[in-house]
């Protein structure tokens, strides 16, 4: 089986299937496709841990990571908004004296 230059999620799932369902050794599969056995074991682990969300692709996040990113962005926005409001309150407090 020749390895594509860029491994798609489907390709990785097929490689994992060779190991998990067909009982091939990670080292054998790795040698056949031109990657390390560690890479194949990592793919097996990722698919086992993340199921259908494994291998989201370059630049893409798992749904959990995407939600975490959105929440962190919201916290950052709220902190910035809070700082602006504090500055405004300080300005208005000074002008009122």
Tags for this model:
0% strand, rod-shaped, 4 helices, 97 residues, Arc Repressor Mutant, subunit A
Summary?
Helices cover 69% and strands 0% of the residues.
Can you put this structure into words, describing what you see?
The protein is mainly α. It has 2 domains: 1-57, Orthogonal Bundle (Arc Repressor Mutant, subunit A); 61-97. Helix content is 69%, strand content 0%. The protein has 4 helices and no strands. The chain has helices at residues 9-20, 26-33, 37-50, 63-95. Helix 1 (9-20) crosses helix 3 (37-50). The longest helix is centred in the C-terminal third of the chain and has 33 residues, at 63-95. It is rod-shaped, with a radius of gyration of 24 Å. It starts with 8 loop residues before the first helix and ends with a helix. The mean pLDDT is 85.
């Amino acid at each position: 089986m020749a390895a594509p230059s860029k491994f798609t999620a489907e390709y990785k799932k097929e490689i994992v299937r060779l190991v998990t369902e067909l009982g091939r050794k990670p080292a054998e599969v790795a040698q056949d496709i031109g990657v390390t056995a560690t890479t194949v074991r990592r793919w097996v682990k990722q698919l086992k841990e993340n199921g259908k969300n494994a291998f989201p692709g370059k630049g893409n996040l798992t749904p959990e990571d995407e939600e975490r990113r959105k929440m962190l962005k919201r916290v950052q926005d709220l902190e910035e908004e809070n700082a602006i409001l504090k500055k405004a309150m300080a300005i208005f407090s000074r002008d009122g004296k």
